[in-house]
Amino acid sequence: MIRFILGRIAYLVPTLIGITIVAFGFVRVLPGDPVLLMAGERGMSPERYAAVREQLGFDRSLPTQYFDYVWQLLHGNLGVSLVTKKPVLTEFLALFPATIELAVCAIILATVIGVPAGVLAAIKRGSWFDQVTMGTALVGYSMPIFWWGLLLIILFSGTLGWTPVSGRISLMYFFPPVTGFMLIDSLLSGQKGAFTSAASHLILPTIVLATIPLAVIARQTRSAMLEVLGEDYVRTARAKGLPPRRVVGLHALRNALIPVVTTIGLQVGVLMAGAILTETIFSWPGIGKWMVESISRRDYPVVQGGLLLIAVIIMVVNLLVDLLYGLINPRIRHR
Amino acid sequence: MKLANFAATSLLAIAAATAFAGSAAAKTLIYCSEGSPEGFDPAAYTAGTTFDATSRPIFNRLVEFKKGTTEVEAALAESWEVSEDGLTYTFKLRPGVKFHTTDYFTPTRELTADDVVFSFERQGDAKNPWNQYIPGLTFEYYNSMEMASLIKSIEKVDDMTVKFTLNHPEAPFLANLAMDFASIQSKEYADSLDKAGTKENLNSAPVGTGPFKFVAYQKDAVIRYQKNPEYWGTPAKVDDLVFAITTDAAVRLQKLQAGECHIMPFPAPADIAALKADPNLTVMEQPGLNVAYLAYNTETPPFDKPEVRKALNMAMNKQAIVDAVFQGMGEVAKNPIPPTMWSYNNAIEDDKYDPEAAKAALEAAGVKDLSMKIWAMPVQRPYMPNARRVAEMMQEDLSKVGVKVEIVSYEWGEYLKKSMEPGRDGAVILGWTGDNGDPDNFLSVLLSCAGAKEGGANRAFWCNQEFSDLLEKAKQTSDTAERTKLYEQAQVIFKDQAPWDTLAHSTVVLPMSKKVSGYIMSPLGSHAFDTVDIAE
């Protein structure tokens, strides 16, 4: 088992190097010069341009800049935002809890609805329920997040007035962040109604962010379940006269959930991608929104650092999923 | 260090929170701003979004634009004198101006000449310890306005008197000092930060003299301000001011309609009709101090001939463009400066839309089978809701006179850069919003010979000596009547030479809740809330 874990971790090193190259290269391949964006329509004299470029270190060759970047990384320094002049890591840590909060709520919602829906669809394979569920999943999977989010806002916030339009909590409430998780902080604040406000602000963004993972989980659960239901031991169990509920619940579901756990783990990447759009629509101050603004300003260190941190998180979660999978399914370890 | 900073910030926030909780019956105004400020030291940035969040609520300048106009009036300077030769400006400071008392700073003295000298010197002098108080921070406005070469010295005459000496006379100088980059910082605060080793806080925990003081900023989410009870001017009407940062225009609109904010800037043009129809909203509008234009490259044939440029201008139906793209929120432009600007020459006649005459003029100029590129900007700007659509309509119009148009576009930063490259292929759609209400701020920046050089903003590369000389002369004259005449003449040359097709002046639209009163629109497009009141 230890060899398995170490092997998995060793895999990460080349991946990490690859990510630094991609993150570094990505922002530089993008057209648009941060120096010129600072000046806007007004322009900047060539001398001034050269001076600012030098100040920001863009006058050096790309390899030099890259090695400098890696050198700084090795010292635990992710760089400083060109715009706010604050350390990238500090900004990231301040905004990350907002994204986690949203992502956790979304994955819980997706699992709580997706797994039962998938199981039911599998059991009633070919029924109208199966067809409707899988059809809906397909629609959900291909839904453009931006459009879907706005649609929900217009319907539930605008027309019906049931949910707040955007943000994390009503601006009436004001308390210092303790954990960064609004649901917890609002409780800690002791202000009346704060928690309800925070929770109501979470509803729409959670639904929007959960849509794609929900579809994926439902489909994956259904197919895993179908596979297991066709296995000999299930047939045996049935033949022994066990009630269908026990066959499904005890024998089939347990085994079917193994691949589903992996699927849920792998949704982390999807969630991060979805967070970028969801946070932008709902003015949710997390890292997705932060990345979008930074890309539009060509804030190189933030984009580089942000991509790297997000990649590391996805990698770590995937690693944990792998390990967990290895734990519950010993066959994997000896592959 | 980091921990100490964190602890300080938390303490600050807690103190602020308690202060906030104490004012339960407080009047709160919520503004749905369109983006996050880049920082809180206005001199270091160039974006209007940043100025709205910093220089307007928190700071003051020596002189300021009178609300709703571009007229300069006394602010932190009570009075000023300009020498005969126009080279020295002596400002008498207003006595008894207090800097903000906040949870992170308690001033021990009032505003003095030291603060003024500090605020400017740090921007121009690379050796000043506050020139790069954060690595990489630059004072872009000060630099691009060439203030460093204009200002010879800034001296403290006595505690309440500051003298600026210039290298050459410059008529717009006073108006320049009313601009956001000229906001006055507290030297005492800066010194205390220096001592504490937290210089960067000047950009994150601002202290000013303005109508509101800074309370807290949560990145990308919300900025909180509180009324400054010791304000030297007319105190603000609301107790708390909140900026709810909402980048998406459709979401801003929903928030306004749901009552989650009271004022929203930059509605999408398509939504304006619906906003006007909403009985709970007021929609304020005002002509913007801006211009959108199509700049030919006057250096490359056949666009080096004024008759060709004029012929092309005649081929394009500007009224149709403005109607379709600006949807009533703009008017056709004939001059490079907007009609609300002093010295606007209303006697000028625009090139008439006349495709037949255009065709004939092109033939007469020997232009046949012309193919050209039109550059369409990829972003919306206050002066331009949809450049792509404008370019398409131009393409259609020009095809009728036998000119083939290819539309090109680049990413915004790239667009700004490439459009200034010498020998650029094609005509560029771009525009400008005035900074200080002075015609020089349009004409010199966009059309002078100096601006046609690399790094300038003259995207027609148009260098007309006679025109540039008039501008130079006007700049060195302090008599406004005299300057008006010179600028009027310059506009005649401009129209005759037609380096641009002047497209439109947009109307700035600001929807707000019916509860809001006292908002005064600024022709310069900035947003200030000290005169605004809100009904409960």
Automatic annotation (TrEMBL), chain A:
Secretion signal, residue range per the UniProt entry: none
Top-level lineage group: Bacteria
First-listed, main subcellular location of the protein, grouped into a coarse class: membrane
A GO cellular component annotation in the UniProt record: plasma membrane
Molecular function terms from GO: dipeptide transmembrane transporter activity
InterPro entries: BPD_transp_1_N, MetI-like, MetI-like_sf
Ranges of residues in domain ABC transmembrane type-1: 96-325
Pfam family, one: BPD_transp_1_N
SUPFAM superfamilies for this protein: MetI-like
Transmembrane segments: 9-30, 95-123, 143-162, 194-217, 256-282, 302-328
Cell compartment(s), UniProt: Cell membrane
Keyword list, A-Z: Cell membrane, Membrane, Transmembrane, Transmembrane helix, Transport
Lipid bilayer topology: Multi-pass membrane protein
Protein family according to the UniProt entry: Belongs to the binding-protein-dependent transport system permease family.
The protein's name: ABC transporter permease subunit
Organismal lineage: Bacteria, Pseudomonadati, Pseudomonadota, Alphaproteobacteria, Rhodobacterales
TrEMBL record, chain B:
UniProt entry keywords in alphabetical sequence: Signal
One Pfam short name: SBP_bac_5
Signal sequence region: 1-21
Biological process annotations from GO: dipeptide transport
Domain Solute-binding protein family, chain residue ranges per copy: 71-452
Species the sequence originates in: Paracoccus suum
Protein known as: ABC transporter substrate-binding protein
Subcellular location: Periplasm
InterPro entries for the chain: Peptide/Ni-bd (IPR030678), SBP_5 (IPR039424), SBP_5_dom (IPR000914)
Coiled coil: none
Domain of life: Bacteria
Listed GO MF terms: peptide transmembrane transporter activity
Keyword set includes Signal: yes
Protein family: Belongs to the bacterial solute-binding protein 5 family.
GO cellular component annotations of the record: ATP-binding cassette (ABC) transporter complex; outer membrane-bounded periplasmic space
